[in-house]
Amino acid sequence: MRNARSKLQTAFERDSMRLLMAGLVCAVLAPICSAVLVRQDISYKSPIKRIAGRVVGFGGPRPDVKIQVLNHPEIRSDDSLSFNEQRRRQMLVASMTNSNGKFEFLGIPKGSYVVDFSTSPPGGWNPLSVFVVVDPKGSSDKLCVKLSFESQGDRASVQPYNHSSCKLYEY
Predict the structure, then answer these.
(1) Which residues contact 69 (CB under 8 A, 6 or more apart)?
(2) What is the pTM of this model?
(3) How far from chain centre, in Å, is Cα 159?
(4) How far apart are CA 22 and CA 8, in angstroms?
(5) How far apart are CA 171 and CA 167, in angstroms?
(6) Helix or strand holding residue 92 (H, E)
(7) Average pLDDT score over residue span 144-159
């Protein structure tokens, strides 16, 4: 009887330890698993001569951010197409930010565009779409793009490059 009780107590302790470990794993992973990426859309305030600038967020410039310049922004409102199909039909050119978070696209003709900013692999930073108008008579502003971090409650923004959030990281 004593041996059976000892085996039962050992099994109970082992199972309790497993439950405790599973509970700890769930508690640690819950914030990560529950994080949700939220695509944000912003329109830049005025026409610009070129698509160039810097991406910043969470204390500094953001290197290796994927940037896609997409034409035909009206496709965004076509609910009959999946998100991926919309992007396939819009793709014009893509690049990555450099080690200082800077980017520049040369030779983009006059017109309306969606500029998508995302990290690869996805996770951490919320994807951002900025609607811009390129016009040779537009502003010489470069863009200061501030990404937001998933589940942090802050909002992405796009300002002229001389905005304090970009100048802060000038080298």
Answers:
(1) 51, 92, 93, 94, 105, 108, 113, 114, 115
(2) 0.70
(3) 17
(4) 21
(5) 9
(6) strand 91-96
(7) 76
Q: Is the confidence at residue 28, as pLDDT, over 70?
A: no
| Alpha-carbon distances, residue 68 vs 30, 94, 141 (angstroms) | 32, 4, 19
Specify the residue for token string 């970009």: 166
Nearest partner of 114 among 141, 86, 137, judged by Cα: 86
Residue tagged 């990426």 (tokens): 37
φ/ψ of 124, rounded to 5, equals 95, -70
Residue type, 80: S
Q: What pLDDT band is residue 85 in, cutting at 50, 70 and 90?
A: confident
- Tell me which amino acid residue 110 is: K
Residue matched to tokens 């005025």: 46
| Distance, first Cα to last Cα, the chain | 76
